[in-house]
Amino acid sequence: MVIYGLALMGGCMIVGTGLSYLIGHLVGINANVGGVGIAMLLLVVIARHLMDRNQLSKLAQNSIQFWSMMYIPIVVAMCARQNVVATYNAGVLAFVAGLGAVFAGFLLIRPITTLGEKSDSLPPIEEDPTYSTESVAKRSN
To answer: What is the mean pLDDT of residues 27-54?
Structure first.
């Protein structure tokens, strides 16, 4: 089961890496600029296209789902490690800037969550007298 979607995922990774080096070269950076992200976007688009046309077997779908569940957390962990090493090597200013970004993120949690709140929220739940603490205590005795 695991091998069926691997060719599609490998092909997307090769194309994504090639495109990311091309984009990096076009902007003057000699590096991979988001190859994994491009590969994952390609994989999602191609897999969805094949599934809509019913050209992707159930085994291949399960394989792609398995590898995406395994692959994405590993890539995120690798990127986080690279960011920490790069920050450490860059000096104190990069470290302070990283801490500032984390601190700003913490401060923005409350304002961002209140943006999504609607004024017509649900009314508070009224307590059901049959499930009050007194009635539960009486039933247990």
So the answer is: 85
pLDDT in tens, 67-114: 777 776 776 676 666 666 666 777 777 778 778 888 998 898 888 888
- Flag whether the pTM goes above 0.90: no
What's the distance, CA 101 to chain centroid? 19
SS3 28: coil
Q: Where are the alpha helices (DSSP H) in 35-91?
A: 35-52, 58-90
Residue at 13: amino acid letter = M
* Whether 64 contacts 12, CB under 8 Å: no
Cα 2 to Cα 66: distance, rounded to the nearest angstrom: 7
Per-domain residue ranges for the chain?
A: 6-89
